[in-house]
Design goal:
It comes from Mucilaginibacter polytrichastri. This protein has two domains: about 55 residues, Winged helix-like DNA-binding domain superfamily/Winged helix DNA-binding domain (Arc Repressor Mutant, subunit A, Orthogonal Bundle), CATH 1.10.10; about 50 residues. It is built from six helices and three strands; from the N terminus they run αβααββααα. A hairpin with a 6-residue loop joins strand 2 and strand 3.
């Protein structure tokens, strides 16, 4: 949500999370505080309600999370990660085509 909206209060982030996941406000608050401590978000405390802003792009956050999962859960095996992802979650036809096109770039680098 921070990536889309820019500036958000904990309440706004919590309300968005609550649409799809049963989670308490204090859990959201704690996660936002941890993200601030790790330098992932910036917090403006000049008003009574603290306002947060993402300091890391979505792409960088995804890359960092994926690197951790790849190295800890799949012991560095990209194939195992992809096989697990595709075996557990159904990809749409357009996603399958995008994956095929991406893999073709590696097989035929001159194209």
């Amino acid at each position: 949500m921070l990536w889309h909206k820019g500036l958000c209060t904990v309440r706004e982030v919590h309300e968005e999370i609550a649409k799809t996941k049963d989670s308490g406000y204090t859990t959201t608050l704690k996660l936002m505080q941890i993200m601030h401590e790790k330098g992932l978000v910036e917090r403006n405390t000049s008003a009574k309600t603290h306002v947060y802003k993402a300091l890391v792009t979505r792409k960088d956050a995804q890359k960092s999370a994926l690197d951790k999962i790849l190295n800890t859960v799949f012991t560095g095996s990209t194939a195992d990660l992809v096989i697990q992802a595709l075996g557990t979650h159904r990809a749409s036809q357009s996603e399958i085509e995008a994956i095929k096109n991406y893999l073709n770039q590696f097989e035929n680098p001159e194209k």
